[in-house]
Amino acid sequence: MKFxxxxxxILSAVSILAGSAILGNVLNDVHVDAVPTxxxxxxxxxxxxxxxxxxxxxxxxxxxxxxxxxxxxxVVYTQHNNVVTNDLVFDPxxxxxxxxxxxxxxxxxxxxxxxxxxxxxVTSLDPCAMxxxxxxxxxxxxxxxxxxxxxxxxNYDKSALFPSLSGTSMQADAQASFxxxxxxxxxxxxxxxxxGVPVSPIFGDNTAIEDQTYALTSTAFDATLNxxxxxxxxxxxxxxxxxxKMLATTDPIYVALKxxxxxxxxxxxxxxxxxxxGLAPYLIEAAEQDIANGGDGNAVALLDRxxxxxxxxxxxxxxxEIQTPFMLATRGYAKLRYNLQMDGVSNATQYLGHPKYNxxxxxxxxxxxxxGLADFGxxxxxxxxxxxxxxxQFQYGVERATQAELDAFADGxxxxxxxxxxxxxxxxxxxxxxxxxxxxxGLPTTIK
Length: 448
Ligand SMILES: [Zn+2]
Hints:
Blueprint: H1 7-18, H2 42-59, E1 65-70, E2 75-80, E3 84-85, E4 88-89, H3 96-107, E5 119-125, H4 129-138, E6 142-147, H5 169-177, E7 178-180, E8 182-184, E9 195-196, E10 208-210, H6 211-232, H7 252-260, H8 280-292, E11 300-303, E12 309-313, H9 325-342, H10 348-351, E13 359-364, H11 370-383, E14 394-398, H12 403-411, H13 415-418, E15 428-429, H14 433-442
Parallel strand pairs: 5-6, 6-7, 8-10, 13-14, 14-15
Antiparallel strand pairs: 1-2, 1-5, 3-4, 7-9, 11-12, 11-13
Bound molecules: zinc ion (ZN).
């Protein structure tokens, strides 16, 4: 079957995205200039992502872009990084690839999109852990990468062997699908041999990137990295945060919080980072919702630095397989902060502090699989950088992968996630044994 992606199809996809309940109505102009023609060769494909890189740079977010194309050579969808817009963090998980995969799942049926094995993902920058997990979950035919990222990229050591994924089936899957095409250049900095799996045969003999295009994908990202990091690093220090339970019930922060999460502020842990069994009913209720939403009965609670329950989320995997409870928790919290700031509520982040001061508690611990990898990666993106070391920001109740397995996996992730002076994405069993027992007894056991 031949798919011809005309402008009208792409524009209707944009309107679906703009109307999405998750993304709200602020992303209505992100890629409407993508009027696809057929792609002829790797240079052509990477050039298309470079166009998205420019739009990301113009928006003031990390300069990364990507595209989904079908194995007949047609552009299906283009997207760029949307972590920052209006000089605010819009969504720490809004990397190009993660958004494209959500879009793919959300629209696969209604737009009659090709099956994953007939989709090629092209990206200007090596995928991070979150996006790699998302990509491996989707199972696309080929992943074509332009620039390297030696800090957060899954191919951080440039070996195309993916040691972070060793001991899992994900490693073989990445080795069989990720391509780092040759770069044809006369300089050492902007040329390379091809590594990874050979690119899809649909690219014919045109299997290399020209050095100017490669340089743009590489240098544009480098140029925005520090700028954007500084711009979004404006949160108040922890000792200036205020307890949202002191808010009047008519305060816009209170109103927005309760509208988004009706259980917000109904529970407060006896000590901020150590919830007790009183949290269990909220996690169990959300886990039941998670099963109804196509998940395996997990849930994530977010406590603030005062121990208050801010939200508890189910996943939404019937809509998109990568919408795990944690992904929706971190996206939901960012959206709350973003919308309040856009509405001019200047003290919003004084009551809803940076997520590095919060505690995320899973009902059931992550597994070492693509969704677990995506969650570990999203935790890194949420934290953005070094985190307070006097607490465990990331906890679970019922164990699935063992603590030793989770620790070894976290230690092997790219430097951004595993260096001592960086994010440190470790997840630990929660300390309160009564909470664990209540979850073990009460969580739904339905198997997907
Ligand atoms: Zn990413």
